[in-house]
Amino acid sequence: MPEHNFRACSLRMELRHLRYFIEVALEENVTRAAEKLHVSQPALSRQVKDLEEELGFLLLERSAKSVALTEAGRVFLEEASSVLERLDEGVERARRVAESSGGELHVGYAPSLTVKLLPPTIRAFQAKFPKVKVKLHDMSSEEMLGGLRSGTLSFALMLEGKSRSAGGCQFKPLRKEAIRLAVGRGHAFLGRAQVSVADLKGESLIGFSKEEYPEYGDMVGRLLKAANLRKKLTEEHESVSSLVAAVEAGMGVSVVTESLRCLVGDRVQLLELDPAPESLVVGIAWKERKLTSAERSFVELAVLAAKEEGE
User: Fold this and answer.
1) Could you give phi then psi for residue 265, rounded to 5 degrees?
2) What are phi and psi of 163, to 5 degrees?
3) Are 133 and 94 contacting, i.e. CB atoms less than 8 angstroms apart?
4) Based on CB atoms within 10 Å of each CB, which residue in 20, 76, 150, 155 is the most buried?
5) In this structure, are residues 261 and 278 in contact, taking their beta carbons and an 8 Å threshold?
6) pLDDT digits (tens, 9 = 90+) for 12-49
7) In the chain, what percentage of residues exceed pLDDT 90?
8) Is the pTM of this model over 0.70?
9) Residue 111's closest CA among 144, 84, 85?
10) How far apart are CA 205 and CA 188, in angstroms?
11) DSSP H helical segments within the chain, as ranges?
12) CA nearest 156: which of 167, 172, 168, 133?
């Protein structure tokens, strides 16, 4: 093996020795330390003994049920902890330098839910990280979940209910979305302050695809059930643009979120429902991991944008 490769492998071994020893010393129990480190107890004991052999003195006094630091072990614990702390600080500093020089964030989103939230978030982020490119992906809920699981998406702006089914993902709520009824400009409901959910009985109800947006189907189902209505969607659409076009053409009415108003202008009208359905929670989701400083900033700026929008 070339000399430089041997030294790299040796360095990795020494760092692992230090981390293992520190965990055993803090837990004062090899079994508990092994569980936290996700290694077998015999392997952990062997690593610590190898470290002692390399150093030439004992770090631990061992009994049947526990371990205790020797005087030399207490000194070494302090020094080893300092070394790893410095290493972590160095990694973070290097990460910040790397992030400031470039990279990409891939963000999945649903246009109707994020029309007010996404633009200010991206503007603020690009001002802070001008060399990090943000790539947006207009996706269905299922596509966003797949992107988070596979790691092809850094973040997804989505509904809270759907994010709960994504194992290993974090979710931070950002804002609430009121539920409205979208109708065409010539519809008989126009002019009403509110539309009773019961009045939907005689209407053609169109909406988003249950396959691509299962949480939408769940929401409409809860709304109809509360009014003792049994209705099925007469049309299912995979995009906001096609759904709005159908409503505008008078093909039916649709249950939508308030933020759709920013996308459609006066093409369709959004009316309040009675009783008012529970608002939906929109937030930012990501695969559980240690976020980079750029990623943390993106989350923080999304929270700030949502707060400023609500003021």
Assistant:
1) 60, -130
2) -65, -25
3) no
4) 155
5) no
6) 447 888 889 999 999 999 999 999 888 898 988 988 99
7) 48
8) no
9) 144
10) 15
11) 3-27, 30-37, 41-55, 71-100, 111-114, 118-128, 141-150, 160-163, 214-226, 240-248, 261-264, 293-310
12) 172
